[in-house]
């Protein structure tokens, strides 16, 4: 699932929906990517930016072949 849609401007899923999916183990990994148009201040989805910020604040990053991923099945950093 592409958070924020293909180009990062879709407001789905919401942060609440994403957190619920993580809690219910429907999402296992988050891959930090580069959006063409996403991100706050550049026309991107605030939801996508909020989800990225929440993931980065709560889960430890791992780098695999130069790609930053987060294992959302691992305990949160501050638990």
Features:
15% strand, 2 helices, single chain, three-stranded antiparallel β-sheet
Task: Give your account of this protein's structure.
By secondary structure, this protein is α+β, with helices and mostly antiparallel strands. It has one domain. Helix content is 28%, strand content 15%. The chain contains two helices and three strands. The chain has helices spanning 15-23, 46-58; strands spanning 29-31, 61-64, 67-71. The protein has a three-stranded antiparallel beta sheet, with no helix packed on it. The longest helix has 13 residues, at 46-58. It is globular, with a radius of gyration of 12 Å. Residues 35-42 have low confidence and may be disordered.
Short account of what is shown:
This protein has 79 residues and is α+β, with helices and mostly antiparallel strands. It has one domain (15-71). It is built from two helices and three strands; from the N terminus they run αβαββ.
Number of helices: 2
* Class from secondary-structure proportions: alpha+beta
Q: Strand order of the main beta sheet, please?
A: 1-3-2
Shape: globular
**Could you tell me the strand content as a percent range?**
15-25%
Report the count of strand segments: 3
Radius of gyration: 12 Å
- Strand/helix succession: HEHEE
The figure for the number of domains is 1
Biggest β-sheet strands, sense, barrel: 3 strands, antiparallel
Helix content: 25-40%
Indicate the multimeric state.
single chain
- Termini separation (Å)? 26 Å
Unreliable segments (pLDDT under 50, ≥5 consecutive)? 35-42
Mean residue pLDDT: 84
């Amino acid at each position: 699932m592409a958070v924020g849609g293909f180009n990062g401007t879709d407001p789905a899923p919401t942060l609440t929906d994403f957190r619920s999916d993580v809690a219910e183990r429907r999402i296992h990994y988050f891959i930090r990517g580069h959006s063409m148009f996403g991100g706050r201040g550049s026309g991107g989805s605030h939801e996508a930016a909020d989800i990225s910020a929440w993931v980065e604040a709560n889960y430890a990053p791992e780098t695999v072949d130069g790609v930053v991923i987060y294992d959302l099945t691992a305990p949160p950093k501050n638990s």
